[in-house]
Amino acid sequence: xxxxxxxxEIREDSIxxxxxxLDHVMPFYMNKLKNDAIEVLGKxxxxxxxxxxxxxxxxxxxxxxxxxxxxxxxxxxxxxDLLNYLKTDQPNAKLIRSTCTLKxxxxxxxxxAHAYTRVNANQIDLNRDAQDRSQPESLILRTLFDSxxxxxxxxxHDQRTIFNVGKSSKPATVSFxxxxxxxxxxxxxxxxxxxxxxxxxxxxxxxxxxxxxGRYDDSFxxxxxxxxxxxxGVSTILFEAGHFKEDYKREKTRAYIFQAVLMALHTVxxxxxxxxxxxxxxxxxxxxxxxxxxxxxxxxxxxxxYTNDIGVLFKETLVNExxxxxxxxxxxxxxxxxxxxxxxxxxxxxxxxxLKKSDLWxxx
Length: 364
Ligand SMILES: [Zn+2]
What we know:
The protein is α/β, with parallel strands linked by helices.
């Protein structure tokens, strides 16, 4: 983990917010990386370039990819921060460079990143294409996996705002999964290592965001890339960047993902994986989907067309190169078991006044 001041020094300030496309990242590639650190592995469906950045020259090989889902940019911002950090003379950066060789694909799905969609230009979810490999992006990742033969894979994603941790009202700001490699979800050496690394990261994150780390359900799906790479005998970790209070641009979560990845690399570099018990992995609470962006309780008190509670979600919509958050009603009824990132209770006069003044009421 590095201090907030140190992080502020290395954060890639040219890339912020939710809309991150290849056009945004190209100046970073051109100006901040040496020519021999970056290569083009191939092209997407719409012939955008897919780049790979290599950092370090050590024996432990780590493959990372981000924005396999084009609208999931938080981890891309975190890996650019990571690249800036790894170029420094910090002792930990030097250690990682000398013990590890990293290959990082910051934007695996540049067409989806451009259009701000989960899927690629053929409307295929690349994270369900691991067996068919019907898409050029899937082939590029798999070809690199086969030639590089990594020891670890980091599969970097964003998750929606709906996830809470366990039974608590805390958002899952970061979630992890050590993907299963078979239907019965056995634990072999590779999967155990994934779990140990997650335990190491969780310990660090609990200091920064106590109670805000979740674990994903580990049901097996061979079409998912993480499950497939785990099947191939490579320790794979799914990272999910999630919601932090009022951080819809995910600039705070970006920093937590950076710290988590750094901790994983540090643990691998120090070879102290065995300090962490895979049993503790199962102590991380599973995610549940109990959040709305806005929860309006007792809405019938202000408008009789509604039954008691309203759960509102924002749809992220690309408008003029910016992401707008458009509210819609997701669920109505008794939502007493749910949570809101923002809450109104229409039995309270101050909430009614605030709600009536807000744009939200007009748009839903
Ligand atoms: Zn994703």
